Amino acid sequence: MKIILDAFGGDLAPLEPLKGAEQAIKEYGVEILAVGDIEKMKKVCEENSISTQGMEFLQADDVFDMHEDPMDIVKKRKTTSLHIAMKALADGLGDAVVSAGSTGALLMGATFIVKRIKGVKRAALATVMPCEKSTGFMLIDSGANAEVRADMLGQFAVMGSVYMEKVAGVKNPAVALLNNGAEETKGTPMHVEANAIMRENKNINFIGNVEGRYIMSGEADVVVADGFSGNIALKTCEGVAGFMNKMLKGMFKKNAKTMLAALLLKNELKEFKAKLDYTEYGGAPILGVTKGVIKAHGSSNAKAFKNAIRQAKIYAENNVSEVIAASLVNEGE
Hints:
alpha/beta, Isopropylmalate Dehydrogenase, 2 domains, 11-stranded mixed sheet
């Protein structure tokens, strides 16, 4: 299993991607094709005692900047590590790709270089987030498509369901539609239509609408949304998690009594922090394209890259794209 790594994507590149690659090679037995300036990558590995065993390098002369027009990745910026990584995946040089680069450019590259699955109307960004279940839940779409149609939301439901079953190991995942009320008649006409489409689809376990306040309850394994609403939900959850961590830290450092309490609750607090830690989940897959494309967080450290590579490995091993393609063909049967 060979995973292609955009070694110059993200805020901490290339050190953290390469450190994560080394860890993934040791822990998961994968091979890595690291894309970027080969001379710089080898120098970073040497200076930081990073083993290159199981690692190959592919030259890229440039880096795609986060502020560039995402569409430029397709034709104008062919010498960047992100374009070359996506082209390598499309050409069969690896089984999946991981990048912490520009989300928009990664989506464009996945759509126009790797290509959408036949019949898929829009590729979607699918973020796995913490909830009361250990597996977390998937929010799809979490930012790729601000405007969608009801039939697109129906496809997101299928794609998210397949991923959570094949990669997260959730049997018969429960699917819900993010809405402003639980009733079938709630929401815009598009939401009402999407609800009906999902209720009629026997290939998914649709449990109805879910309000924003319940998405982290664990009732739904897949929460379907348009990219605009989904991204707001994602950023709100991230903000609340950061606020809670800050408040807890301040509370336990208040005086000797609270510091003693923190010491007594050390293991429980560690588990709580891990539950809210994005590095545990690795990255967000772009679903609806012919091969595995995993978007790691822009500030990913080595641990996050390692887990993103694990995601990519499981995605490829379980032929998720092929299963999604078959599931969409069989919709409504």
